[in-house]
Amino acid sequence: NFFKLFPASCGCDPCSQTQRSKLQHRRARINQQINKEMRMRAGAENLFRATTNNKVKETVALELSFVNSNLQLLKEELEELNSSMEVYQTESEAINVPMIPLGLKETKEVDLTVPLKEYICEHYREDSSLFEKEIKEFMELRQAMRTPSRNEAGLELLVEYYNQLYYLDQRFFPPHRTLGVHFHWYDSLTGVPSCQRALAFEKGSVLFNVGALYTQIGARQDRSAAAGIDRAINAFQRAAGAFNFLKENFSNAPSLDMSGPSLCMLVRLMIAQVQECVFERVTLTTQDTHFTSQLQVAQEAARVSDVYSLVLQTMSQPLVKDYVPFSWASMVQVKAEHFRALSHYYAAVALCDRTHCDEEGEKALLQLHVSNPAGPPLSQVLRDPEERRKLGKAHLRRALIRHEEAMRVHGLCKILRKMDILQEVLSFVHKRSLDKYSEMDREDDFDETAEAPEIHSQTQQKPDIIPPNFSTVQVTDIFRRLGPLSVFCARARWGPVRLVCLQRGEGGLGLTLRGDSPVLVAGVVPGGCAEEAGLREGDYIVAVDGENCKWAKHGEVVHSLKSCSDRGVELSVITLHTHDTQVCFIALHTHETQVVLCVCSSVSLLNWNRKKNREGGGVTKRLGSTFSLPFGNLGDGESMY
């Protein structure tokens, strides 16, 4: 049944035996082993502190050393798995520098059946057995999102679950109380388990996986064509947006991968990979070999080097240095050196191979360097072929130094040495610069090669951080049958359901109704039928003659009351006592303008109903996105009967 409900086409791919899924299974197995070893270590440490027997202490200390050794080996194995960038790369035969993707956070199964049933009975006073279908649906959705497919369907699955968590939070998680359910998630890089009862931890972990999945989608694009480059740029920008949103909206994260410094590093890493894709698009679309075009490519390469240098600096911070995989830091350093070398190479090609230079080219050369090179003014260099050759040769010399440094750093990392495509790229560009340098070198050139200044970085496209748009995946509240969230939520408190038998008198029923979903008794006529039957102002009608009308519109309830026979009508009503203090957002719509007022209040919904603006709707803020909630009591006009 699970596979029928959530097939691979819906974004869940639990049975796929691709390299990536096998990698995920290995990660899950290592995470479980790490969790077991950490529990053993915690027990041994407690015993070591508690015992006074020296012999027992020696034995426990020996066991602790074995456990710590096993933990270290498991963490190293997991690091190697997390550094397996090749399985996430494109299968295209095109030669591109590999990108750095991020593995998904793993989670343990959570059984919410008993806690949700108990809460439905206790808080909503409903028969929980009637909601087994909804509970099962939610559990299957959570199970499906643990193995999202690496495409748009997988992203939609994660966002769908994230959106459902909003409703779950509103329905079952009141302030200052939890359901007693523990959410277990493993660190994406170290595998260290974290456990919290707060639903925010579940939300944050799912959002982290949204960003991680975007990195995998970006890494798999075929960047030999402009369309693939654009898709990669979009994916990495959205990954940066997800991590940045997480950084700004979550604090005190229990796992290092969701800590502020780590998320800051991930955002900068994604931005750097966007900048790299921009460079690849510039080189791909720059067909002409004009002097100015080559200088622009040089400045784009310098820009990529600069942003990777910033990432490397972030990775060297105290809280991140010991956490980031060595292969990541090595790859970032390799790229910083590689693109710095390319900037000098393209500058040399422009100076030596492009003899024609117009006024625009002269202006571009004057803005190329961070500082003016030694020797004649650049305007004179442009007109003197020998001076151009000397400056170009100086740039090539710096390019070769950077190429060799990139290859040296690459050789120090065992994991990078296994990446044939990276070795191929570095060897190719180094040989190209070396051949160019040999071509320009002369036997009678006894002048000492000048020192070329660094290239001033500049880009044609600055990366954007695209925040997640949760409204792209529309969801229906799984537990919708409990009633409109405006009344039937975890923060609301109401009395037991009362049965009121109304019979129409000569003056009518003697009550005023307002709004819908659910309909409110806005007033009762003193001495009228409604008051005598026990109806009170502020009651909500939840059923008419046994028919549930929590979601009924104003007109539907009115029609039911008008259609009552001589024996009268039986109403099921509740009285809302209070809402717990919370921040609510009320959207007031006036034709083409929307004004949002922030109200901190613990007023009852009766007060919400008395707002004069009949066109409004309720909106509650949910981690940077908004969901329209049916404060429908503001919708229809009031009617008197």
Automatic annotation (TrEMBL):
Residues 499-563 form the PDZ domain. It comes from the Eukaryota. PROSITE patterns: BRO1, PDZ, REM_1. One of its GO terms (biological process) is signal transduction. It holds the Pfam family BRO1. Residues 64-91 form a coiled coil. The keyword Coiled coil applies. InterPro entries: BRO1_dom, BRO1_sf, HR1_rho-bd, HR1_rpt_sf, PDZ, PDZ_sf, RHPN1_2. Residues 98-443 form the BRO1 domain. Residues 447-467 are annotated as: Disordered. Belongs to the RHPN family. This is Rhophilin Rho GTPase binding protein 1. It comes from Oncorhynchus mykiss. The lineage of its organism: Eukaryota, Metazoa, Chordata, Craniata, Vertebrata.
